[in-house]
Design brief:
Layout (H helix, E strand, L loop, with lengths): L22 H20 L4 H26 L6 H21 L7 H10 L3 H22 L3 H89 L3 H14 L2 E2 L2 E2 L2 H35 L7 E3 L2 E3 L1
Antiparallel strand pairs: 1-2, 3-4
Helix pairs in contact: 1-2, 2-3, 3-5, 4-5, 5-6
Length: 311
């Protein structure tokens, strides 16, 4: 089995589902807000107007921290809370814009939030609202034709730029999510292939061990059988016959009992005793014949018994 294939592949899952909820957006909003506040403080307006504009700008900070920032960290944009948050920002922005025209620069921080906390269509609506508020107060301060055209041009440019930029960003985010999903699928496929390769290696190793064990045991059993057959063939015919006779005798019962050497011993002794006189008489016959020829006496013996006489 190859060792260069990892068995566990870490997934490339992003920590956050929304790209806009990264900390650098907070830094960007802080920089724009600080710059706009500094411009308002340096603007040649009455103190009362400066105080009202500053209060409206200051009210935007807790409004963003407690409502806008949590909405930006959600995986899916919330329609109603996002709409309420943007509506509150529009009111505060209108108050600040009515006191100082320099607060229009704050739109650079407010317009991106329109696409972060709600859908793209509603966000574009609020982009138009913020720019129309700024253009309307600009025309109110300078009702001449030049002032009106200048305000109209700024509003048209801001709305067009927001629309094009939002569409482009949405496409980039969509492609990024598709690529992330593709990478996760590739990593998952790689992990499955690695697991399958590992399983195949384990299965091959099991087959190899099983084959070795089977061959070793089969060889040992074959050797034992061969040795037994050779030992049986080496026995001579007499040993085999003796063994068969012993088995046959042990298997033949007499009067319900097996025949043994002890039971057959008295019969053999009686047979031998009955044959002994015949053998003795046969051996003495030539001696008696020779003695009768030399002496002329017939070798006849009479055995006395009551009423009979036997030679």
């Amino acid at each position: 089995m190859r060792e260069d294939v990892p068995l566990a592949i870490p997934q490339l899952t992003p920590q956050s589902g929304r790209i806009v909820a990264e900390p650098r957006w907070d830094l960007y909003y802080a920089v724009v807000f600080t710059a706009c506040l500094a411009i308002v403080q340096a603007a040649p307006v009455p103190a009362s107007q400066r105080i009202i504009a500053t209060a409206a700008l200051a009210a935007m900070v807790p409004w963003y921290l407690f409502l806008g920032r949590p909405l930006m960290r959600q995986d899916q944009p919330a329609a109603r809370p996002g709409t309420a948050y943007l509506a509150g920002l529009a009111v505060l922005f209108a108050v600040a814009q009515s006191q100082d025209a320099s607060t229009w620069f704050l739109a650079f921080a407010l317009l991106p939030q329109c696409f972060h906390v709600t859908s793209a269509r509603r966000g574009l609506v609020f982009v138009v609202i913020f720019n129309v508020i700024g253009g309307a107060f600009q025309v109110w301060r300078d009702p001449r034709l030049g002032g009106a055209l200048s305000a109209l041009g700024i509003v048209a440019f801001a709305v067009a730029f927001a629309y094009v930029y939002s569409r482009w960003m949405a496409r980039v985010i969509e492609q990024s999510l598709d690529r992330a999903a593709l990478i996760e699928q590739l990593e998952a496929t790689r992990a499955e292939l690695a697991a399958a390769h590992h399983e195949a290696g384990v299965r091959a190793e099991r087959h190899r061990l099983a084959g070795e064990i089977h061959d070793t045991l089969a060889q040992g059993f074959t050797s034992i059988v061969t040795l037994l057959q050779a030992a049986e063939a080496s026995l001579d015919a007499e040993s085999q016959a003796r063994r068969h006779r012993y088995r046959a005798g042990a298997a033949s019962p007499s009067r319900g009992e097996p025949v043994t050497a002890a039971s057959t011993a008295p019969v053999s002794a009686r047979s031998a005793a009955g044959k002994l006189p015949v053998a003795t008489a046969t051996a003495r016959a030539p001696v008696a014949s020779a003695a009768s020829t030399s002496s002329g006496v017939s070798p006849t013996r009479t055995v006395a018994s009551p009423g009979k006489s036997r030679p």
